[in-house]
Amino acid sequence: MTPVNIAAHLPAMAARQPDHPAIIFAKSGLRWTFAELDAESDRVGRGLVAHGITRGTRTVLMVPPGPDFFALVFALFKIGAVPVVVDPGMGVKHLGRCLAEAEPEAFIGIPKAHVARVLFRWARPTIRRLVTVGRRCGWGGTTLAGIRRAGADGSPPLVDAAADETAAILFTSGSTGPPKGVVYTHATFAAQVRHLERIYGIEPGEVDLPTFPLFGLFDPALGMTAVIPDMDFTRPAHVQPENIIGPIRAYEATNMFGSPALLDRVGRWAADRNVRLGSLKRVISAGAPVPAPALERFRRLLEDGAEVCTPYGATEALPVSNIGSTEILRETAAATAEGRGVCVGRPVDGIDVRIIVITDDPIDGWRSGLEVPDGMIGEITVRGDVVTESYYRRDTATRLAKIRDADGAVRHRMGDVGYRDDVGRLWFCGRKSHRVQTASGTLYTVPCEGVFNAHRAVRRSALVGIGDVGAQRPVVCFELEPTPLRRTVPQIVEELRAIALRHDHTRTIDTFLVHDGFPVDIRHNAKIFREKLAVWAARKLGSAAEAVS
Asked: Looking at the predicted structure, is the pLDDT value of residue 545 above 60?
């Protein structure tokens, strides 16, 4: 295989623009040039090797986004070690299971992470190397300061990784089931860099404000300066808008990545104060569909020609397709409000999208008859160079999610349902596991929710099913807009019932429950935990029935 270490982009950029800032930390003002980041990650890489963390070593990394985090990630890639990345906010139970599955041989973390590791006995049978970022107590190992001293001198530690060599294990957020470790190769990362550069026309010298740390790791590979904002990255929906607006203006950011929840919060704050963000060329938002009002509100903050882009994909395959705010607001948002789903654009070059019949069973190989006609809702499957091939130590999950094409290539089942329209665009209709199967037919979440989200008092809605599959009762939960209401909740419910009767696919829905705040994922704060919401709705309706009786 051709060597293709994803970290090779960093020394290349360091040679091309050595004195240009690679990372700026907005809170402290600390900045590293490309040459400094390259040298620091070399130093850390050599020290890790001296400590026994070498090529292929699966290494848990529990360090908050900051200078040490970026130095460590690039060091691990350079030496060919395998970072194991989990969301710390997923909870102790999920964390323990994920780490047991990953069988890590090394653990790098802040003191708090090591205390939790010891208390909850995370991956105790397999961990052999410990590094503490900060003060080390009685758990052994060494410190990052010691790693730096050990790696002070020597040659660059960049290994010639093969394209199919495992580069990282990235765990999914667990928004629709237990988190799973997605196996990334160096070729997968390299393909993502190529696609992002081409799709968005990103050029070296640009400035990015990434509000999702892993996205910020692409910046040095793309030659962009990453400005890391002061925020809790596990709670983007609660970010202080000033901590986003300030760095964009101060460093004249040209690019920004943010979840729909962050865009909604920052957009509302900025719109109320007539803020303009003239330096931004593009804003990229992923994790869940961006509601049209939030999209339009944020777009008004930008100059003419700038776009809010919403790529579609998943941890297992990203990017799959892309669409910009101009096309959404001019063409597809109206169809979303009529219940046709959310348009996620055309597949990116080199990504083959096929829509297949919906089944919850594994599909061992591609066969004729799997595809459905354009316009018909089915499960979305994708094939291409950004598609990962497996989950780590999850053979059953891999078998359920992957299809082998006739030539042996892997096609990923996205777990989403949708359709292709007559001009080749892809429309998203929700998660396959969230479809509501009633006695009179199947309801898909996004097409149903679209018509209710069009109500001015509704911030967002969520369709859930109560009862046994095949005889489920459809219930729509909804949040209210934060603005003062001109009508009561019972009046809004009656208006939502009237809306339901105007559409064929929502006529059987007559139960609506107002909710104070949906449970959402920890990564983007945008994916709704409908399973939890269904339990809440069942209890709510059960309590109401008991009160009546």
From this structure: no
d(CA 361, CA 350): 27
**Cis check: omega of the bond before 178, within 30 degrees of 0:** no
At 409, list the tokens.
């290539």
For the domain made up of 6-13+31-185, the CATH class stated in words is alpha beta
Separation of alpha carbons 444 and 442, rounded Å: 7
Nearest to 392 by CA among 131, 85, 109, 80: 85
Phi then psi for 344, rounded to 5 degrees?
Answer: -110, 15
Residue entry with tokens 């790791």: 217
pLDDT of 91 > 90? The answer is no
pLDDT, tens digit (0-9, with 9 covering 90-100), for 271-282 = 999 999 999 999
Which DSSP string corresponds to 463-480? Answer: EEEESSTTSPEEEEEEEE
Give the DSSP letter string of 63-79: --SSHHHHHHHHHHHHH
In Å, how far are 46, 199, 316, 465 from 405, measured between CA atoms? 42, 27, 17, 34
The mean pLDDT value for 425-431 works out to 98
pLDDT tens-place string over residues 213-223? 888 899 999 99
Instruction: Classify domain 341-432 at the CATH topology level.
Output: Luciferase; domain 3 (2.30.38)
Structure-token pair, residue 153: 């001198």
CA dist., res. 384 & res. 398, Å (int): 17
pLDDT confidence tier of residue 174, bands split at 50, 70 and 90: confident
| CA–CA dist 395, 466 (Å, integer) | 31
The CATH code belonging to domain 435-548 is 3.30.300.30
Sign of CA dihedral 442, 444, 449, 452: negative
CATH 3.30.300.30 location in the chain: 435-548
Q: What is the DSSP string of 388-423?
A: ---BTT-HHHHHHHEEE-TTS-EEEEEEEEEEE-TT
CB contact at 8 A, 186 and 6: yes
Environment class of residue 74 by beta-carbon count within 10 Å: exposed (0-12), middle (13-18) or buried (19+)?
Answer: buried
